[in-house]
Design goal:
The complex is a heterodimer of chains A (about 150) and B (about 210).
Chain A: E1 2-8, E2 11-17, H1 23-30, E3 49-52, E4 55-58, E5 71-73, H2 85-92, H3 102-115, H4 121-128, H5 138-151
Parallel strand pairs in A: 1-5
Antiparallel strand pairs in A: 1-2, 3-4, 3-5
Chain B: H1 2-38, H2 52-66, H3 69-72, E1 82-83, E2 88-89, E3 102-103, E4 106-107, H4 108-111, H5 145-153, H6 163-168, H7 173-177, H8 192-204
Antiparallel strand pairs in B: 1-2, 3-4
Helix pairs in contact in B: 2-8
The chains are: A alpha+beta (about 150), B mainly alpha (about 210).
């Protein structure tokens, strides 16, 4: 065990965990930020996606010791009142069905639009390939990203 | 009197010619005799001291490593990396991208941290995980030993590496990680130390390509 100082959603936290603890478990168990979900634990489903210095990463595959001084943003920190363009578009298109994967979908979509404010269908498909939705809401996800892009 | 003088001069010229010719011949024979007799080893210049056979034998061993999944999976013929001991297409279809590090939100580093987390089937970590860039794909998949050897020594196809850089590539952190992926992944057919030895032997003996 060792004490790590991490910046999550703009706040610095001290956590005492093993060096190989995945960030996902630090977020959920230590910081009680439960919006980021556990899916597969091997970076295959995308449900645990958070931002690390703005880049989408799978928090289940990143040990706490790999974070260095980078800033983490979770679904709770994406916007102050749930009004990020992607979140608004998600509501407008009624994207979620069961909703379990949606935090990861939204975090990936937000990261995509930060890097490419007007993605083509092909670019959206490529970017979202790592986020699986068992309810198959993919067409609505695509439409919502297009809508959000107009506001970015 | 004049005739005698001319004759004397001609005889003198002939004598001098015969004397100098004899000297040259004797000197040359002496030199030859010295070379043969003293047994000194005359070393070849460094540039000529190459053993093409040793080079090719070494490359054939190098080749078994290069086409092994631990190496070849990141040198695919397409723009999607391969995965696993069967070299299947990588799940999620991550793209090469211009710099070989993926595309927005689907970069290698999205899942491959600079160090991995423990557990079965977790993504292996490495600080510089990447494929070759789009403008020089350095494909291993489907290449014969001859084709791969030629590719590896061609600046326009090997990442602009001269022989020194090519030699040093054996120390690359991502190359080394092929022997340290974790899990139950197969290891390359040679140990890392054996690979380095044949890699250097191949290069130091002229980096010859096996025949087609």
């Amino acid at each position: 065990m060792a004490v790590y100082s991490i910046n999550v959603n703009g706040t610095t936290h001290q956590v005492d965990v093993d060096s190989d603890t995945p960030i996902l478990w630090v977020l959920r168990d230590n910081l009680r930020l439960l919006g980021t979900k556990y899916g597969c634990g091997i970076a295959h489903c995308g449900v645990c996606t958070v931002h690390l210095d703005g880049e989408a990463i799978r928090s289940c595959a990143y040990p706490i010791s790999a974070i260095e001084n980078k800033k983490i943003v979770t679904i709770e920190g994406l916007s102050e009142s749930g009004d990020h363009p992607v979140q608004k578009a998600w509501i407008e298109h009624d994207v979620p069905q069961c909703g379990y994967c949606q935090a990861g979908q939204i975090m990936t979509a937000a990261s995509l639009l930060e890097q490419n404010s007007n993605p083509s269908d092909d670019e959206i498909r490529r970017a979202m390939n790592g986020n699986i939705c068992r309810c198959a809401t993919y067409t609505r996800i695509n439409r919502a990203i297009k809508t959000a892009a107009k506001e970015m | 009197m004049i005739l005698n003088n001319k004759l004397f001069k001609r005889l003198k010229q002939i004598g001098l010619f015969a004397l100098s010719s004899t000297f040259v011949i004797v000197f040359a024979l002496a030199c030859k005799a010295k070379t043969i007799s003293n047994g000194d080893y005359v070393s070849l210049p460094e540039a000529l001291k190459k053993d093409s056979l040793a080079s090719i034998v070494a490359f054939n061993k190098v080749y078994t490593v290069l086409i092994h999944p631990r190496c070849m999976n990141c040198h695919p013929s397409g723009d999607i990396p391969l995965q696993g001991d069967e070299s299947r297409i990588h799940t999620m279809l991550p793209q090469r991208g211009p710099d070989g590090k993926g595309v927005a939100t689907m970069k290698c580093a999205t899942c491959h941290a600079n160090k991995g987390v423990p557990g079965e089937h977790t993504p292996p970590g490495n600080p510089s995980w990447h494929l070759p860039p789009a403008d020089m794909k350095m494909v291993f998949q489907g290449k014969s030993a001859h084709e791969l050897a030629i590719q590896l020594v061609t600046l326009e196809k090997n990442g602009n590496k001269d022989m020194k850089a090519l030699r040093e590539h054996a120390e690359d952190t991502l190359v080394k990680s092929g022997w340290n992926m974790g899990g139950n992944r197969q290891l390359p057919p040679l140990s890392y130390e054996e690979f380095k030895e044949v890699w250097y032997t191949w290069i130091d003996n002229g980096a010859y390509a096996p025949s087609k």
